[in-house]
Design brief:
Layout (H helix, E strand, L loop, with lengths): L1 E5 L21 E5 L3 E10 L13 E8 L6 E6 L12 E9 L2 E7 L1
Parallel strand pairs: 5-7
Antiparallel strand pairs: 1-2, 3-4, 3-6, 4-5, 6-7
């Protein structure tokens, strides 16, 4: 997993933009981070708003705060069993997930 980091102020910048959101520097570099984080928030989605096939409905989407990149939060698909739920602040592993030909991040407790 790689995320953009400013080489001037060392701030993490997610969502990627041309300039640093902290100091407006253009000196951004993608850096490797561990694909793990903590559950910041989650919700159960009962309708498919994406227009793409989902493995099951309802499904759970979580906002994961990346351990190596404070203040970076990424939406991810919950990949555990249908009868389980994530717990706020629990440590999770992020995994690339392919659904309907699209690649995105999923997480497992």
């Amino acid at each position: 997993m790689q995320l953009p980091r400013c080489q001037q102020c060392q701030g993490w910048n997610w969502y990627p933009l041309p300039a640093c959101k902290h100091c407006q520097s253009l000196d951004l570099e993608w850096q490797v981070v561990k694909p793990e984080g903590r559950v910041y928030s989650w919700t159960r989605v009962h309708r498919n708003f994406s227009g793409h096939t989902m493995p099951c409905i309802p499904y759970i989407v979580g906002i994961i705060e990346i351990t190596d990149a404070p203040d970076v939060r990424i939406p991810c698909y919950f990949m555990n069993r249908e009868d389980s739920e994530p717990t706020i602040n629990s440590l999770v592993q992020l995994l690339p997930c392919r659904v309907d030909g699209r690649l995105f991040w999923g997480f497992q407790v």
